[in-house]
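hi! just following up on the protien thing from before. the input was this:
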Amino acid sequence: MINRIEVANKKNQNNVFVYTIDKNLNANQLKKITDALTNPVIQTSSINKPLFPKKFTWALEVGFLPGVTDNVASTTKEIIEDLLKIKFHTGEGIYTSQIFFDQKKLINPLIQRMQIKDKQQFIKDKGMDKIAPKVILKIKPKTDIVNLNVSDEELIKIGKMGIENKDGTRRGPLALDLTYMKTIQKYFQKQGRNPTDIELESLAQTWSEHCKHTIFADPIDDVKDGLFKTYIKGATEKIVKQKKKKFCFSVFHDNSGAVEFDKDYLITHKIETHNSPSALDPYGGAITGIVGVNRDIIGFGLGAKPVVNLYGFCLASPSIKTNLYKDEKLTQKMLSPKRIMDGVVAGVNSGGNCSGIPTPQGFLYFNNRYQGKPLVFVGTVGLILKKINRRPSYQKKARPGDLIVMIGGRVGLDGIHGATFSSEALNTGSPATAVQIGDPITQKKFSDAIVKEARDLNLYHSITDNGAGGLSCSVAEMAKESGGCEVDLEKVPLKYLGLAPWQIWISESQERMTLAVPKNNWKKFSSLMKKRGVEATIIGKFTCSGRCLVKHHKKTVMDVDMEFLHNGLPTRPMKTKKIPLKLKIISPKKNLSHLNLCSFEYISQQYDHEVQGTSVIKPLQGKGRVNSEATVIKPVLNSKKGVVLSQGLYPEDSEVDSYYMAAASIDTAIRNAVATGADMEKIALLDNFCWCSANDPEKLYQLKQAAKGCFDYALAYGTPFISGKDSMFNDFNGYDEKGRPIKISVPPTLLISSIGVINDVLKTVSIDVKFPDDLIYLLGGLDNAWQKINPLKNKKNYQLFHRLIENQLISSAISVTRGGLAIALEKMAISAMLGIEVDLKNLDLYLEVQGRIIFTINPQNKNKVEKMMKKYPYLLIGKVVNKDKIIIKKNKKTFINLDLQKALMSYKSTFKNY
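and the predicted 3d structure came back as:
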């Protein structure tokens, strides 16, 4: 029997929240449930009777489509099971929805359903229809054989559009080009058979650009070992050899990389992108991204504790009103930039706040070329002891005979072809099944059970995340450690019946981890998970057979050689086409209300950065609550040491000179950390390349130059890369409002993130000036050479600045970044709401010259500071004043005379209504 519980505000019933319960329950049980879901002070409720206002014209009910993750429903289900001491069985469930009376509501048809009734029909029907949006799969699950003995034209079609069903439809992109398809064809010809659908799908996930990063791995021009090995990994290997003390751990071969925090702990860091899913469902894409990168941290070594989340959104202006469409008939409308922005902000909010992980560090960057596909960066920092029970915590290995155990959420159709979908441009064939919605509550339970209990009890040998490719990638990756695996797919817990073996194997349904558990530990491990409300299931065993063997009800559906599965993909040498460097167009002067300079306090204040009690340097600083370029946390509460986090990003320079763009991003990421208190010797970097049209020789040239810039500047600064990720086809191929074909490509974007260790958090520096009469200095960049970076000089300046901080001679500091000197000075002033008077001599106010730090000192320390800076490029430019004015001069001529309050209003004006 389907029951409906409706809850609304007593004073306003124009919005009613509905719980649809598909289970036989008696009146007493329903009353108990309703009481538990209702706040009697402000809410009213009803059981199987509609709530509605006295006056309305029409009613609109909006809920999730069948199979879409409904987090509120999942939590409600647990509440009911705990309250009534009952269990929901297969076919039973809870579904949530909302009824809006006379209110317009934008829905996303990829994930939401709706029904509309006028008042007459609503009254006649006694409310909205009782709908339980179950997933009902009518096709009997089976495994098909895929004929690869076909023409090259057909192979191309299979690789691009997917395996053909009997009715002529296609299953969705495999993202395998003809070279890959021919290699797979040849392999199975040697086996004397055609592949099963699950074998072909599994190879597609494993070989996808999203998972294998083939553009970074394959030869390019004269770089025979590829960009990654030569420039990214190559830089780190050289730096590691040069460092006197071991600083990096498990770099480039685990879910994330790590650096030494102190003698007892490591800090691990990973940043991912979730661009394509966020274009289709911003909330789902962003929340799935943030909880997914949390799992990367939980899957580092034997399991690290997530201690910080980070975010970054590259978006089109929310004021854009023009529409884009995926299809020529203009029926598949893309979401507006504002809806995408609102969705991704909310998604990271839910993911972090519901997981109990602070989210202090982030950025916004706007460019209208992100209208076709936004870039959504999400990151997590983790903490782990160096040794757990006397063994290195960062080492793990599945062993033959270990049980393959899946824990967490169940498997459904959500996330099918996620990895292959993210390896292509967004177009009319982009599948709705790639959309997922993460469930942070479910994940929090197993995170705590693993990191706080099972890990320290030595209950497993290895662990990894079920991310891109689902089980097909996590199990097969771990099987490399042991030498093989055997999987029984019918044992995998499902959200609903009817999934085909290939769907179970590649689904990216969220909140899942795979572990290698010794047989004699299973009983204890299983009991622990059950106590913590975490579903744990044995789905097979690890072997040393050299094969990836998958069965479904004892029938072998996949039997592929491990070597071919992981290393059988052919190399595809690439050629670039050199493009001339362009002169950068010097942008006109910008004010604090500019989209890329203004306050995004509305985001920072809704992201909890105080949970876990580790926050030192906050995301909003001073009385004026200015967004900081760097934040500091104290992850070990009884230690003085801290972790500083920042980033650098200059997409606007990519088309000018991508080598310089990479250099500027690295310099900024490092300088932001140094200006806050980081030691140059204890900074590491992460790289996230988000490129467009990555098969275009000119774009490949830009990519190559950017990678070379990463190598040269990381080496010069001595800052190793410990982790990274690339996303290669950030393009939109669709139609404009008049049905004309249109291609929108993101500007080639490189995010460089920095993580540094600070010896004493009491010596960290914020951007807000402290006292009137404090002196204001500029260190570095004493000319207007805005497109030149000297890393050797800058490094010496940064080392000097660290010594000044260690000697507690710096009162406040800001790294000069976007907007140049004028914007940096204005932000310092409004942060403390204290006036400043400066003279910049011959320096340009707005040029974004790299290598600059502005800082203030107590005038009593003037001689001591200037003596330490004697051999360094510095300039005394002014002082803090007890006036409500920002006065900036050039050679004694006033260029800016700005009222502090007006400056603050300008800074806060852009997003004041958000």
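Residues 99 and 742 are 37 Å apart (CA to CA).
The two ends are 42 Å apart (CA to CA).
cheers
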